């Protein structure tokens, strides 16, 4: 049985001899090649996704004023940022909304910073002996602050359920507007291009994995929140919903507005689209088999979002979803993607180009992710 190491593959990348395909290309190759043949022919497979990822944000160190201030209340373009860190450190969450404009929020501040725009900073403090200043109003941008790094606690969901609506009225959700009586269904994964569907057991992805994040190099910093690896799987080994997530980090100053986009969802709120690409090293036949996954083999659950606990009402696959229609309870239902397959393909191609030009190298995880994890739910009974 053939095996490779990440070091061997990196050596081939540096010498310009590595064979690199996108996940869609290797899926096509798998129609005429076995995993044992694919590992002989392919060294790296690039995967990608570009979709709304609400659990995102950025840490900013503003630098000290003269006289200095210990910031306790901070707004950026009238969007509240969390200041309970240190004197001039703050965290701006993507979904935090402006006090004056509900359609503008932290995601827009992040996108504006990436695009080099000036941001209005306001901060107050009660004042201390060592930080006597009580108020500051100024403008910042990515060039005049010390550090800005994107740190997203939950990105790149492994597999997300399809959303639909059986109720008599339209409902507004983070999965878009859902029409009554199963008038439509929305989904938010890039199918056979999606990173964690190409390595479902995370044999090559872990803490320390180098990734493409928002146009620059980033890293997997931890397993993401709501990391759930004990979900039921189909015959192809793919979780039927949710599953694993990633916490990721990268230098916002080096990112591109091409791959980070703010968004507003009607009657729901602000979110942010994040572009992520992950290279999968083909180190074993097991990985070669995993990256050969095709849309028709990637199943996911269909959930009714008109009911609070979003019960499962069916199962479909990504070939059907991307065709533009699925069957729910015997009727044909139109589908629409919340993520952009066009942008995911663009990211996979860009990552492939960087690897071919020796501008991106693979890393081995410093620690693998935990297995058989489950989720806790908040006790909402409360006190009477």
Descriptive overview:
The protein is an alpha+beta fold. It has 2 domains: 6-54 and 151-356, no CATH class; 63-145, no CATH class. Helices cover 17% and strands 33% of the residues. The protein is built from 8 helices and 22 strands. Strands 1, 2, 3, 4, 5, 6, 7, 8, 9, 14, 15, 16, 17 and 18 form a 14-stranded mixed β-sheet that branches. The relative contact order is 0.20. The model has no long low-confidence stretch (mean pLDDT 96).
Helices and strands, with pairings:
Elements: H1 6-14, E1 20-22, H2 23-29, H3 35-41, E2 44-52, E3 57-61, E4 73-76, E5 79-86, E6 89-93, H4 106-114, E7 119-124, E8 135-140, E9 147-155, E10 162-164, E11 171-173, E12 176-178, E13 185-187, H5 195-198, E14 210-213, E15 216-223, E16 246-251, E17 260-265, E18 269-281, H6 285-290, E19 299-304, E20 312-317, H7 318-323, E21 325-328, E22 331-337, H8 341-356
Parallel strand pairs: 1-2, 10-19, 13-22
Antiparallel strand pairs: 2-18, 3-6, 3-9, 4-5, 4-7, 5-6, 7-8, 9-16, 10-13, 11-12, 14-15, 14-18, 15-16, 17-18, 19-20, 21-22
């Amino acid at each position: 049985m053939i095996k490779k190491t990440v070091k061997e593959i990196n050596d081939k990348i540096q010498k310009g001899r590595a064979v690199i395909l996108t996940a869609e290309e290797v899926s096509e190759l798998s129609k005429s090649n076995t995993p044992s043949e694919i590992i002989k022919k392919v060294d790296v497979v690039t995967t990608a996704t570009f979709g709304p990822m609400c659990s995102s944000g950025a840490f900013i160190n503003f630098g000290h004023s003269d006289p200095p201030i210990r910031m306790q209340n901070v707004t950026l373009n009238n969007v509240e940022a969390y200041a309970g860190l240190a004197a001039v450190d703050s965290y701006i969450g993507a979904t935090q909304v402006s006090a004056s404009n509900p359609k503008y929020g932290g995601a827009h501040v992040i996108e504006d910073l990436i695009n080099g725009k000036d941001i209005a900073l306001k901060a107050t403090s009660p004042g201390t002996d060592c930080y006597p200043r009580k108020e500051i109003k100024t403008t910042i941008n990515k060039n005049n602050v010390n550090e800005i790094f994107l740190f997203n606690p939950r990105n790149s969901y492994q597999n997300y359920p399809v959303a639909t609506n059986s109720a008599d009225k339209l409902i507004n959700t983070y999965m878009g507007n859902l029409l009554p009586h199963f008038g439509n269904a929305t989904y938010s994964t890039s199918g056979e291009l999606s990173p964690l569907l190409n390595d479902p057991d995370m044999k090559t992805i872990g803490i320390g994995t180098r990734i493409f994040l928002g146009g620059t190099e980033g890293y997997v910093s931890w397993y993401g929140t709501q990391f759930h690896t004990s979900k039921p799987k189909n015959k192809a080994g793919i979780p039927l919903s949710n599953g694993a997530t990633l916490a990721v980090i990268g230098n916002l100053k080096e990112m591109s507005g091409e791959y980070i986009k703010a968004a507003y969802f009607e009657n729901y709120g602000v979110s942010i689209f994040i572009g992520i690409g992950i290279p999968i090293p083909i180190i074993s036949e097991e990985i070669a088999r995993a990256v050969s996954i095709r849309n028709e083999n990637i199943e996911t659950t269909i959930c009714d979002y008109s009911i609070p606990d979003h019960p499962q009402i069916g199962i479909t696959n990504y070939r059907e979803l991307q065709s533009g229609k699925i069957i729910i309870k015997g009727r044909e239902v139109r589908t629409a993607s919340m993520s952009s397959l066009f942008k995911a393909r663009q990211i996979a191609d860009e990552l492939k180009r960087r690897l071919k030009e020796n501008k991106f190298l693979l890393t081995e995880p410093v620690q693998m992710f935990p297995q058989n994890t489950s989720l806790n739910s908040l006790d909402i009974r409360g006190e009477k």
